[in-house]
Structures are given as C-alpha cells and as structure tokens.
Design goal:
The longest helix is centred in the first third of the chain and has 10 residues, at about 20-25. Strand 2 and strand 3 form a beta hairpin. This protein has an eight-stranded mixed sheet, covered by helices on one side. The chain has a two-stranded antiparallel sheet with strand order 9-10. The protein is mainly beta. The chain contains two helices and ten strands. The chain has one domain (about 10-50, about 65-115): 2,3-Dihydroxybiphenyl 1,2-Dioxygenase, domain 1 (Roll). This is Putative glyoxalase superfamily protein PhnB. InterPro entries: Glyas_Bleomycin-R_OHBP_Dase, Glyas_Fos-R_dOase_dom, VOC_core.
Amino acid sequence: MRPTIVRMICVTLRSDDVLALARWLTEVLGLTAGHVSPGHAELFWGDGAVLLGPRTADDPWDTGRAVTYLVLDDPDSHHARVVAAGGDVVQELTDQDYGSREFAVRDAEGNRWSFGTYRPTAPGLRWDEPGILTM
C-alpha cells in the first residue's frame, strides 16, 4: 500500500540571506535541505516543509509577520468558500509561473495564509499524482 497525503502545510519565511538561513536551519536545527538557491529554499522536517524566500524592498509578502502556505487540490472551490465567509483576500486566484494555482488571505493580526497546488517534495519522495506521495 502506498502512503498518501491528502493535505500538507508549509511555513514560508522571508530572509535577508536565504543561503545563510537555510544553512543554519539545516546545520543547527537539523532540517533536511531540498532545493536551495539564493532565490528559494525548501527545507523539510518530517513531511512538513519550511520555504524561504529573499526579502526585498517591494515584497508584498514581507509583512514582518508569518506567511503560511497550505497545499490543497482544488484552490478554486476553497477560494469561493473563503470569500463567502468574508475572508480578506490579498491575492486573487493566480496561475504562478512555477505551476501553482494560488490565492491568499490576511487574518485579523496581519498574517498571510496562502493556499495553492504547488507541492514541495522532500529528497527521496515524489508526487505520483495529486494526493499520492511515494518513497
């Protein structure tokens, strides 16, 4: 029987130096490195992930607060549900150039909650199809 993951949560942080922070998180805290570059890093703790991106002056995501990314298979229906519930949408549904369909909302404390189809993959694992993670 193949292991399956229906939903996955990933923490996203902005950094002044993605490579240095990724190195510290792997070397000091023991996270496992996936893809790491100056513009993007994927670090894993079990089957959870921390995504790092560079801090820039005009970055709408650098709020000084947490940005949390949650993976789901159907962002369109979830977006409709969030809007109907009065969610404060800060990014409408967007097809990203890296293949994800995403939207984001702001909570009452200013944190961003982003939902999308992009699935970071830990070394040694692969997505055979949405919701099916195989070793």
